[in-house]
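Question (not urgent): is this output format expected?
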Amino acid sequence: MASPELHSPALSAGAEMHALLRELYPVCRSITGNGVRRTLDALERLAPIVRHEVPSGTEVFDWTVPREWNIREAYIKDPGGRVVVDFRRHNLHVLQYSVPVRARMSLEELKPHLFTLPEQPDRIPYRTSYYREAWGFCMTHRQFLELREGEYEVVIDSSLEPGSLTYGECRLPGRRAEEVFISTHVCHPSLANDNLSGLVVATFLARELARREREYSYRLVFVPGLIGPICWLARNEQAAANIRHGLVLTCLGDAGGFTYKKSRRGNAAIDRMMAHLLAHSPEPHRVIEFTPTGYDERQYCSPGFNLPVGCLMRTPHGEFPEYHTSADNPEFVRPAQLEGALNLCLRLCDVIEQNRTYVNLRPKCEPQLGRHGLYRTVGGASAESAELARLWVLNLSDGGHTLLDMAERSGLPFEAVARAARELERHGLLAEHV
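Got this back:
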């Protein structure tokens, strides 16, 4: 059932996204299983997402789709019968992909299966064992220090069986077959910034793009981390060849400024566009070089594909103390930060859609802009920014410069350059280069 907070006209986009984030926070997601499907159920209310199932055992390049994992219950009871750890209280309490367990054991036997953060004693860590059979519990270090000697009852009611890996995909056709590709990971349980923030921003981006006329086609994928993009690429090699610009979205709700990680190419159009937009943004930001670590951009940028896919985040993974702990909760994520990320993504799409090449129809000397109402009638003062943009566009419209080239060279915002091009085209001074 839809949350009553969603879709209210009184809510800002940031508040709507945060309401969806809070709704999804309790769901136990993993790289497979019903938690992913429940999450996609919610996202499909807002955007035209189609889900795909990849059977367990499917070979995808050097990987194999694992068995499907689901969990119903998990707890530890101390020697007095008191429940000291309970999956129902927080789903980070269980090591992801834990095999079923029902046993009694001593504290010494139990300890190797317990994970804590001694340096953050009040937080539950997030730990996984996707590709090696194991079981375990995560707890606060304070809880761990309170455990006393004796026999413990340990129960993990889970299943690890042939099933499938689920991912969602939203494809929005445009006038051109070339695609803008957006990817976000859907696998983390009860971690709000990493990565419910990416999920909700991508979903609202899909909703907004679906309402617009589109020059490019757009494809947004909601995939489990690592194995998800590998599956998508293995099943979509031909479609991947159509990707012209791509972005991975993650960690977009914390209080930090934006961080953009370049694609492997380093100078792809997406890298230049993001650097330009951030340079003209009032928010603090940084642009960092590609590394083969991080999020799913490293799969899209693997040498066999080398796609133009960067990564947009605020504070990068591992650089905020709440990362992969129970402190990464809805209170850590700010609605205004989500809305800022959505707006930046929409501005990026505007740049992609408008980044065209033009030809000056009167290239021999400057046309008399004043006669067209495009230049002030009283001379002697410095050119205003709108006039300056028109002059740059006229000068560089030789069929070899895009509007992004012009914005970068002039130091003007892309929006000003694009507006100038539209004005000049309306006055018959400019034509799009085909």
